[in-house]
């Protein structure tokens, strides 16, 4: 498997994520109550569960949360990529909406400080995971038609996941737990 097909799927995943991200921003601009609801849901489901811990535990929880999300994006390929598509799109809308609400209340610098340090590792991990999921879907279809060995392709995709995605989310979790809070503190 060459890098070319993977790159195409990453571009597709990035386009889907960016489009859904913009949809989230537009939704909040049209109706700020949507953003308020999404922030409340995000706070209840994510922040309350992980933010009250010591930094090391926080890092581990972030890592596990992101690992599960990336695995769902990758293994969602067995559903013809539908789960990968829906999860990536829903996360784009959620992140766009939440960031737009935070931007309107705290400003662009705060949002950049809260997202960029770990986001430069985390977002590529999500996009690559989704791309691998779409490639897995294609491999399964190809296998069904007798054009591809899905088992062989799945092993290769799994190696990419382990060698690229896992290191990215490990670094992202470390940065999100130990560095991002310090940067937020500096700009607050």
Architecture blueprint of SSEs:
Blueprint: H1 3-30, H2 32-50, H3 55-75, H4 82-106, H5 108-144, H6 150-187
Helix pairs in contact: 1-2, 1-4, 1-5, 2-4, 3-4, 3-5, 3-6, 4-5, 5-6
Please estimate the helix content: over 70%
* Radius of gyration over C-alpha positions, nearest whole angstrom: 17 Å
Order of helices and strands: HHHHHH
Put simply, the count of helices is 6
Q: Supply the number of structural domains.
A: 1
**Strand percentage:** under 5%
Class of secondary structure makeup: mainly alpha
Q: Span from first to last CA?
A: 47 Å
The major β-sheet equals: none
Name the poorly predicted regions. Answer: none
Mean pLDDT: 92
Strand runs, count: 0
Coarse shape: globular
Characterization of this structure:
The chain has 188 residues and is mainly α. It has one domain (3-187). It is 89% helix and 0% strand. The protein is built from 6 helices and no strands. Helix 1 crosses helix 2 (32-50) and helix 1 crosses helix 4. The mean pLDDT is 92. The chain crosses the membrane at residues 6-28, 82-102, 109-140, 160-179. It holds the Pfam family SpoIIM. This is Stage II sporulation protein M. Keywords: Membrane, Transmembrane, Transmembrane helix.
């Amino acid at each position: 498997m060459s890098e070319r097909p993977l790159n195409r799927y990453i571009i597709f995943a990035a386009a889907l994520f960016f489009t859904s991200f913009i949809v989230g921003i537009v939704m909040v601009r049209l109706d700020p109550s949507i953003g308020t609801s999404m922030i409340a849901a995000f706070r209840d489901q994510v922040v309350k569960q992980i933010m009250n811990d010591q930094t090391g535990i926080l890092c581990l929880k972030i890592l596990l949360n992101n690992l599960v999300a990336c695995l769902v994006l990758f293994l969602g390929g067995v559903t013809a990529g539908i789960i990968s598509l829906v999860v990536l799109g829903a996360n784009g809308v959620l992140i766009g909406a939440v960031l737009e609400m935070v931007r309107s209340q705290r400003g662009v610098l705060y949002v950049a400080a809260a997202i960029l340090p770990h986001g430069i590792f985390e977002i590529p991990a999500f996009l690559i995971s989704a791309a691998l999921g779409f490639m897995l879907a294609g491999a399964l279809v190809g296998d069904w038609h007798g054009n591809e060995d899905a088992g062989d392709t799945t092993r290769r995709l799994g190696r990419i996941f382990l060698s690229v995605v896992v290191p990215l989310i490990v670094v992202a979790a470390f940065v999100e737990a130990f560095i991002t809070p310090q940067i937020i503190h500096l700009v607050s």
